[in-house]
Amino acid sequence: MATTATKLGAIHHKILDLLKATPTGLTIYEIRDQIADLDVQQHLDKRVRELRYTHKVPLRRIGGKAVYVYEGEREEGLSDGGHISSALRAKLLHAAHGKCQMCGRTIADDDIKLEIDHKIPRNWGGLTVEENLWAICGLCNGGKRDFFATFNDDEMTRILAKDSVYERIAETLRIYEGSPTPAWLLQFVANADDFQEDWQKRLRELRYPVIGYEIAASRRKNPAGKWEAAYTLREWKPLPENHKFLIKEFERVNRKARSN
Q1: At residue 154, does pLDDT exceed 50?
Q2: What 3-state DSSP class applies to 135?
Q3: Host H or E run for residue 22
Q4: How far apart are CA 32 and CA 44, in angstroms?
Q5: Residue 73 gets which letter from DSSP?
Q6: By the 8 A CB rule, do 19 and 26 touch?
Q7: Fewer CB within 10 A of the end CB, N or C, for the chain?
Q8: CA 95, 160, 136: angle at the middle one, nearest 5?
Q9: Domain HNH nuclease: where (predicted)?
Q10: How far, in Å, are 84, 99, 143, 144, 146 from residue 113 at the CA level?
Q11: Cβ atoms 68, 52 nearer than 8 A
């Protein structure tokens, strides 16, 4: 699916200025702390994502934190035809150190061949940029492709385009309502826009009384015979529009009660 660039506005330029002033990078929370407008804060992940059409703003793991780093302007605006340059392909393969970044098997021990794959598929809105690419083995790539083919592309594009991590998790649980949702799939959608230091905390927060989701945890064997965690949503209901505020307020009240 081809993607078109968004015209940059004042908030985009403010984010760029913050990143340029901090070469070591900023987490999404640090960027949010420096932007006072609450409405902008609620859509900040989307604004950062839109910057990637015209600027190189990869998400890096530095010092145990996931930070956005400014690396300059793109020579040309990003028109995503899916082409992966030989230089980028070589860089990704080198970074993998001969190991599948999905299952952990290696070229040396398991005689696998690594392939470059879009973490978020292009037909779900994923971009052909370094942070959305990884090196995985042919078995994982084929299995992932076949599994993702069981989903409706339009529905997943809609879910992954949501700015709220809570909405992305909730809407994915809704697809499986009453049945176990693989934990790795929830982690995948949680990290679609911004890396979550603790995506499972976001899941737990959906269980808060102010939200009221009943989510049961379980373990099951996947088709490869390995045990994996899964979560089942008992009954779907729409998230309140102010769900982020409700969660923060619930935590604030609880902290105050514990301190008394």
Answers
A1: yes
A2: strand
A3: none
A4: 7
A5: B
A6: yes
A7: C
A8: 25
A9: 87-142
A10: 18, 9, 15, 16, 18
A11: no
247: left (phi over 0), alpha (psi -120 to 50) or beta: alpha
DSSP string, 159-221: HHT-S-HHHHHHHHHHHTTTSPEEHHHHHHHHTTTS--TTHHHHHHHTTSTTT---EEEEEEE
Question: What is the token pair recorded at 94?
Answer: 């080198």
Between 195 and 78, where is the model more confident?
Answer: 195
- Collect all residues with Cβ–Cβ distance below 8 Å to 140 and sequence separation of at least 6: 100, 102, 103
For residue 254 the two structure tokens come to 């609880």
Does domain 86-148 fall under CATH 3.40.1800? My reply is yes
Query: What confidence score (pLDDT) does residue 223 get?
Result: 59
Token pair 């045990």 in the structure block, residue: 227
pLDDT score for 4 = 45
Q: How far apart are CA 240 and CA 250, in angstroms?
A: 14
Q: What tens digit of pLDDT does each residue of 40-58 get? A: 555 677 778 778 778 888 7
Residue boundaries of the structural domains of the chain: 10-68, 86-148, 162-259
- Pull the structure tokens for residue 140: 């994982």
The first and second tokens of residue 225, run together, are 């015979």
The pLDDT of residue 225: 67
Q: What share of the chain is helix, strand, coil (3-state, %, to 5)?
A: 45, 15, 40
Considering only residues 105 and 82, tell me which one the structure prediction assigns the higher pLDDT.
105
Report how far residue 144's alpha carbon sits from residue 124's, in angstroms, rounded to the nearest whole number: 14
State the average pLDDT for the chain: 84
